[in-house]
TrEMBL record:
Coiled-coil portions: none
Skewed-composition ranges (Low complexity): 23-35
Signal peptide, first to last residue: 1-19
Keyword Signal: yes
Lineage per the UniProt record: Bacteria, Bacillati, Bacillota, Bacilli, Bacillales
Protein's name according to its UniProt entry: ABC transporter substrate-binding protein
One Pfam family in the UniProt entry: ABC_sub_bind
InterPro entries xrefs: ABC_transpt-TYRBP-like (IPR007487), Peripla_BP_I (IPR028082)
Organism: Gracilibacillus marinus
Amino acid sequence: MRKGIWLLLITFVSIMVLSACGTSGDDSSNGSTSGENDVEEGDANTTDEVYTIGATQIVEHPSLDAAYEGFQKALEDAGLEVEYDFQSAQNDQNNAVTIANNFVADGVDLIFANSTPSAQSALNATKDIPILFTSVTDAVESGLVEGMDQPGENITGVVDLHPDSIKQTVEFIDQYFEGATIGLIYSAGEANSVAQIEAVNQAVEGTSLSTSEATVGNSSEVQQAATSLVGDADVFFIITDNTVVSALEAVIGVAEEQDIPLLVGEPDSVKRGGFATFGIDYFTIGYRTGEMAVEILTGEKTTADIPVEIPPSMQLFINKEAADAQGVEWNEDWDADAELLEKE
């Protein structure tokens, strides 16, 4: 009897030991598989991270659109996977404020602010989310940064006005249209524009030129403003004012009808029918802003590490067809000095 009991006990213990070994082996195998999956998933998250960028633009016109295209191309070239939320304010400052607040509520990784009003709205909405701007004429005067080499804790970018652009445009007018009155049309509500108009008037001092101004509140008033300058203006100079540039065709129509040469602030407006500009390439400044975005998103730098930059270069662009349409007598010097653009 006792011998039978002992045999039963030994058999029971053996079964329990074997069972425990089998369970331990299964756990070890499962643990190893789980660990491998965790590593693979972690690697996937690191290499395939998707960034969300809120892109805010005050209005859609060729120059701003080109800057946005350049920005996107830089991130594409860097191999970053990005989801964009593009929003146009339709030239309404209140819309720009709403767009910026929505980006903050959505928790985007970075805000691309394409124009002065867009950048101001974004900065007012957040002090935490990185903001990169372009198509801004004077980042200091507009309150975006304290100085070109003093970017904000969450904002920096590339301005769209070369320091010599307005000065050289005025010198060009003084040389080839001596004694002319320059007709200026702009929105007094755009800090970007007010700064440029002041620069034009300063550049005119000491030359044979004078200025005559007309302001607009929205794009529907541009044609009337241009017409009001007929009789006073010998030359039009349309700066990079978003309101006026978005309705540039209205000014072109008056310029061609009245034989008034139309100088503009950037090459895209030359392609649309402006006569000439000392301008920059908006795709290029957008691309450089995108390179900044790559550095920030990957953690290589912060906005505070990147000074505000100016356009890398500037040159004379002329539309020969537009010159003819606006009664401009062609000068042979321009064949050598200018890059000739055709009207689109």
